[in-house]
Amino acid sequence: QKEVEQNSGPLSVPEGAIASLNCTYSDRVSQSFFWYRQYSGKSPELIMSIYSNGDKEDGRFTAQLNKASQYVSLLIRDSQPSDSATYLCAVNKAAGNKLTFGGGTRVLVKP
Amino acid sequence: EPEVTQTPSHQVTQMGQEVILRCVPISNHLYFYWYRQILGQKVEFLVSFYNNEISEKSEIFDDQFSVERPDGSNFTLKIRSTKLEDSAMYFCASTGGSGQPQHFGDGTRLSIL
Fold it and tell me: In chain B, which among 19-78 make CB contacts under 8 A with chain A?
């Protein structure tokens, strides 16, 4: 079983719609959860961090965490063509520990 | 906003040669990392560094690799006797710890010929 799993996509979304991305993780001791955006050929860019169960909103982005189900998701509202990228889910077990990444979900926002 | 800086942006090296990839982490950060991403694959952890020593390393980080913090600002990754399969993007990251997220540099694209 992969440590962090994501659907590779592509997830095709019309401009203005909501993109919904999912991520599951296998290690129950995972404590911190992150979403990074990666444009082709570029480095991961932090979008959201979430540490406790529930929802966390930042602008057009909402992260949701359910530790009992070992599941974290990202919603992108009012999707824009500039949101077209690969979204990486990453987890770590404790402060200072390594990040374990999923394979990423490629999102395509069509005008 | 402070950022992690990496040099060079692109390094082309003959197989068997040694390369040094350089990073300047964010100044008040305490934890430093190297990751790599082979084209089309996921980001993989190589090594973490804290308090002037390696705190964790992956199976990838064998005797071919070493890290160093030669002064108060730089953090380097040395790859000895490079192989074709070392071709990848190498990312440096840093964090202040305590659950803070890791911030990544722009990466070094390493091409082994």
Answer: 30-31, 33, 35, 41-45, 48, 50, 55-56, 58
SS3 breakdown of chain B: % helix, strand, coil, rounded to 5? 5, 50, 50
Which tens digit of pLDDT belongs to each residue from A57-106? 999 999 999 999 999 999 999 999 999 999 999 999 877 789 999 999 99
| CB proximity B98 to A under 8 Å | yes
**Do residues A44 and A38 make contact, with C-beta atoms less than 8 angstroms apart?**
yes
Q: How far is CA B53 from CA A94, A96, A98, B23, B70, in A?
A: 18, 13, 15, 16, 12
- Which tokens go with B65? 């690799």
